[in-house]
Design brief:
About 45% of the residues lie in helices and about 25% in strands. It has a four-stranded antiparallel beta sheet, covered by helices on one side. It has a two-stranded antiparallel sheet with strand order 1-2. It has two domains: about 60 residues, Arc Repressor Mutant, subunit A; about 80 residues, Gyrase A, domain 2 (2-Layer Sandwich), CATH 3.30.1360.40. The protein is built from six helices and six strands. The protein is of the alpha+beta class.
């Protein structure tokens, strides 16, 4: 039942219909699933859903599919990262407004050697890296991941 409910929730999110947990509960109930706010909250986390700004609206979107395949990481990085800068122990990635959390979530799901923490704002992702490696080295690791996934 949980797997079916999460699959239905992912379909609803991918269709662009879910703008809040309450909307998700309503749509899931219409589809025949029993769901409480806590259940939906946990399901959203499990499937990797994040809030994004879509024009004037805020809605949920899935960052990567449930199989966590590399193409999704590549698609997120290519679609949403506008610029990359490295300085000292910090990497700054710029995104379109409302998309930083999508990029941060994709990076969080991967294992980026040397990344100590990732923080997303509205259009900026900050990656704090280990001083021993430096930001340039870790940025090269991220770029290598992208090139490996594109093969």
């Amino acid at each position: 039942m949980k797997i079916d409910r999460q699959a239905a929730l992912k379909q609803l999110i991918d269709s662009g219909k879910v703008d809040s947990e309450q909307t998700a509960i309503k749509l899931l109930r219409e589809a025949g699933f029993t769901a409480t706010e806590l259940v939906v909250h946990c399901d959203l986390e499990d499937i990797g859903a994040v809030r994004i700004r879509d024009g004037e609206k805020v809605r949920f979107a899935t960052v990567v599919d449930s199989s966590l395949d590399g193409a999704s990481f590549l698609q997120v990085m290519r679609s949403y990262v506008i610029s990359r800068r490295a300085s000292g122990n910090m990497i700054v990635l710029k995104t379109p407004p409302g998309h930083a959390n999508v990029v941060a979530a994709a990076l969080d799901r991967g294992t980026i050697e040397g990344a100590l923490g990732i923080v997303a704002g509205d259009d900026t992702v900050f990656i704090c890296v280990d001083d021993r490696l430096g930001a340039e080295t870790v940025l090269n690791v991220i770029e290598k991941l992208e090139s490996d996934y594109s093969k």
